[in-house]
Amino acid sequence: MESLFSSIEPLLFAVEKPARYVGGELGSQEPVHTEDTVAWLLAYPDTYEIGLPNQGLQILYEIINENPRAVAERTYAPWTDMESAMRSSGIPLFSVENHYPAAGFDLIAFNLSAELTYTNLINMLDLAGIPLHTADRTDDTIVLAGGHCTYNPEPLADFLDAAVLGDGEEVVTEITEAVRTWRAGGAGDRSELHRLLAQIEGVYVPSLYRPVFDGPVQIGLELLDPVAPRVVEKRTIADLGEWPYPKSQLVPLTEVVHDRLNVEVFRGCTRGCRFCQAGMITRPVRERPAAQVAEMVAAGLARTGYDEVALTSLSTADFSGIEDTVRGIVDDPLNDGRVSVSLPSLRVDAFTVATAAAIGQVRRTGLTFAPEGGTWRMRRVINKLISEEDLFAAVESAFSQGWRRVKLYFLIGLPTETDEDVLGIAELGARCVEIGRRYHQAVTVSASVGGFVPKPQTPFQWHPQDDLDTLTHKVALLRQAARATRGLQIKWHEPAASVAEGIVSRGDRRLGAVLERVWRAGGVFQEWSEHFDLSRFEEALDAEGLDLADYTTRQRAVDEMLPWDHLSAGLHKDFLVGEYADAIAEIGVEDCRWTPCYDCGACTTYGLEHQVAAAQPPAGGSQGTGQGLALRPTTPVALSARPS
Amino acid sequence: MTGEISTRVRLRYSKTGRIRYTSQRDMARAWERALRRAHLPIAYSEGFSPRPLLSFSLALPTGCESSAEYIDLRFREGEEGPTGVRVAEASGSSGADEVARLLSDLVPPGIEIESAAALDGAGGSLQEQVTSCSWSVEVTQMSTAQLTERVDYLLAAATVPIERERKGRRVTDDLRPSILRLEVVGPGEGPGVIRLDADLATKPRGVRPGELLGGISPQVRLVRARRTAQWIDDADGRQEPLTRDGRLPTSVPSLAAERS
Question: What is the C-alpha to C-alpha distance for residues A339 and A306, in angstroms, rounded to an integer?
Fold first, then answer.
């Protein structure tokens, strides 16, 4: 392959943020492609700034490049100005390392994290000159997808050679070997490649299955080849400590989101929030040993020079010994008192004054708590069992330690939600502002409100989503109620975008043609509000003879076949059904990391266990109605009110 | 590990290759990371969100190369860093080369530190002191003859109105007073590429190479631009903020300092 850089360079003076297209990050590799290497192009279907920090992609980048039989480069969706410059100059999608054309790679592997980026994937294939449809490919680049959205990849089935379920650390090496085998056999017959891939655990090959529909419902799934498993089970790495990646996190030359050192402290979450797909599909909990976390942080800071480190997971305050870990970082003399720690995804019931003090010592970065529901009733439905006391104690911890600004995350459109539940968000926000005023003259509490989209492989996978009018009404109601409180800001996600997300989230294979129409009508970067347009989705559904309501607001029967029933995260269907029933009955369940197993299937299906260092919930633990409330210690330091 | 460093240090560096596509803000962040990796006891601003005290000369437009960029660093007086670097008790002492040595491998590829000097006293802001810049600009889409004609016309004109964006609005500015020198030098690198040299004033506003070309002709296209010098005007003519061989300006009062 030949570098395209000399033809790309003349375009760079005229585009926004040209550093996105030149590579050169610290940690970037210089892969040497040979006859014997399998060449992977790891792709993120959104801009460089959003895609570069993606940890999954960076982990696989290193693992593949460590394999002497494979090389990996990266690519991202070029912004619209660059894309049109590339198209008018005849430049295809390229990698940022060697600036090789995408179609010259053996595989292009997309990270799928958000439904609204699906049309970007189609656009990138087109820009690469790779045939859009799997059925039209011969010896062309193999198109793969991984990431959370692949637990229902059916809307993209027409475009993917294969989708990978679960952790990618081990499976990428097996895929490399399958591609080598196929190439050794002359790479002539693509169905032979598909058969090789389908025999790898965790790899789903859509072309070996044919769904059968009757009206809105999928009523059958034909297996077209004997090697295709009836159910594809996800991959799970048993011990995160064996995978200390990324070892050389990429430090970009230009600013990106989450521009800091990121160290994953555990994977999986068993808090059991019923709306949360990530918490359902990534079980069990696998903690990284605290000593390894400390090593990765120290080595990472020395290598990168970052002044912020994020300890990432789905609920970092639950990490065993979180306070010691944070204190170890801020007190390290090499860090000169200048390195701050951020803990994304804070659970309020595990957040204490001590944690607040430790993370606030250097710089008070934003603090975000996620009560998700505005009333205790609502939180019982979604099994986010944090009491008002938990929330107020956490917020008080923050304000008492000097924070003046706190962010709260909520969902609206949750199952069984009433106007009263929505107004509860404004009430909670107002109470938080009131607490803040005891410590500071002026405080800001901002409540970010997203529209709930039911996700596959969760207890709400059967539940109707709110329609556009209902969501719009709820946003208006909340904004009106919030006006009464100075210092309370409401930020909301565009309800129409939640609708579009909902179409795709639980979509079936017929949506492939719909997504293609949306893309042909110019619908790229749909996750960017300035480019989003629901009418493109509505028109495309019409043209395909499909009904928006069937995908979004229709109540699905629990015995109905779902388009993703043959894809498994290990969860037993009776567990999900039971959770759904409990939700409607407003009954919560405990966190099984510290309480007896209720057999969701995630461990037992694969012979796995939780790996958790501490046998006790970290600080609080009102998880379970009343259950464990006694475990919560009294607020550890005295809180003093602002002198009046 | 090392000896003593001055409290204030000026570095001169070049920026070439792919790193030229980064913005000034990106560069500031790269220097901050390099300073932390070197464990140099950089001084921080006060306030809610303290930032390292480093200041740059005039911002280099994204996409342009430079062989004359400057950064002034401030260290915490009398402090010792965790790896043994000691900052002097007062300004004006030596130790600038040590700073350059520690940083040279830690800045991104494409950044070369060319010289260093300890600064005396409070000094002043480089952004305030620099009065003009020299540029070497390579263009295409016009012949040498056409370009020479346009340049002669422009130099003879009393005013050269150009449109530019300021705070999101289109405004018309006069380009002419900013052009101190402009000449067609000859062929540049690559087929059909012609090189222009220009000296452009920085007051009241800096002029970017792209804006200069807009004044020459809408037809001409920028291929490459490199800042070759920044200048401080004074009674004796013009001087660089720090020469490649490490000399500071002599007659700018607040900048008198001994060499490192």
Answer: 8
According to DSSP, the residues that pair with B116 across neighbouring strands are B11
β-pairing verdict for A340-342 and A308-312: parallel
- Locate the chain B residue with the closest alpha carbon to A363: B49
Domain identity same for B148 and B103: no
Contact (Cβ atoms closer than 8 angstroms) between residue A388 and residue A428 = yes
**Which pLDDT band, with edges at 50, 70 and 90, does B94 fall under?**
confident
Counted across chains A and B, CB pairs separated by less than 8 A come out at 70
Query: Cβ separation of B26 and A253 shorter than 8 Å?
Result: yes
- What percentage of residues in chain B have a pLDDT greater than 90? 65
pLDDT at A350 (0 to 100): 67
B244 belongs to a structural domain:
no
**Would you state the pLDDT for residue A315?**
87
Distances (CA, A) of A62 to A27, A367, B43: 10, 32, 36
Residue B60 within any structural domain of the chain: yes
pLDDT of residue A283: 95
Q: Which chain B residues touch A if contact means CB-CB below 8 Å?
A: 18-19, 21-23, 25-26, 29-30, 32-37, 39, 41, 44, 48-50, 62-63, 81-82, 106, 108-110, 210, 222-223
pLDDT by residue (tens digit) across A466-516? 999 999 999 999 999 999 999 999 999 999 999 999 999 999 999 999 999
Q: Are residue B112 and residue B141 in the same domain, yes or no?
A: no
| H or E segment and range at residue B204 | none
User: What CATH number is associated with residue B82?
Assistant: 3.30.70.580
Query: Which of A97, A39, A99 has its CA nearest to residue A65?
Result: A39
**Residue ranges, chain A, pLDDT below 70:** 345, 349-350, 352-353, 363-365, 616-644
Per DSSP, B80 falls in state B
How far off is chain B from A387, nearest CA to CA, in Å?
32
Query: Do both B109 and B11 map to the same domain?
Result: yes
- Domain range for B159: 132-234
Same domain membership, residue B204 and residue B179: yes
Q: Which CATH number goes with the domain that contains B156?
A: 3.30.2350.10
Q: Indicate if the pLDDT at residue B226 is higher than 90.
A: yes
Answer whether residue B241 is part of any domain: no
Classify residue A139 by burial, with Cβ atoms within 10 Å: 0-12, 13-18, 19+: middle
Same domain, B138 and B123: no
The type of residue at A38 is V
DSSP state of A26: B
Per-residue pLDDT, A6 = 92
- Whether residue B234 contacts residue B251, with contact meaning beta carbons closer than 8 Å, is answered with yes
pLDDT at B203 over 90: no
CB distance A218 to A562 below 8 Å? yes
List of chain A residues whose C-beta atoms are within 8 Å of the C-beta of residue B63: 12-13, 18
Q: Do B63 and B78 fall into the same domain?
A: yes
What structural domains and CATH numbers belong to chain A? Answer: 5-227 (3.40.50.280)
Chain B residues with beta carbon closer than 8 angstroms to that of A255? 25-26, 29
Q: Give how many domains chain B has, as a whole number.
A: 2
The CB density around residue A159, as the number of other CB atoms within 10 Å, is: 24
Same domain, B145 and B211: yes
- Whether residue A329 lies within 8 A of chain B, CB to CB, comes out as no
Which residues from B are below 8 Å from A363, CB to CB? 49-50
Give yes or no: residues B97 and B16 share one domain.
yes
Least CB-CB distance to A334: which of B18, B26, B82? B82
pLDDT of amino acid A617: 67
Dump strand ranges (E) for A414-561: 444-451, 488-492
Picking from A10, A255, A303, the nearest residue to B29 by CB comes out as: A255
Q: What is the ipTM of this complex?
A: 0.90
Residues of A within 8 A of B220 (CB-CB) are none
Position B243 in a domain: no
CB spacing of A305 vs B26 below 8 angstroms: no
For residue A556, give the amino acid letter.
R
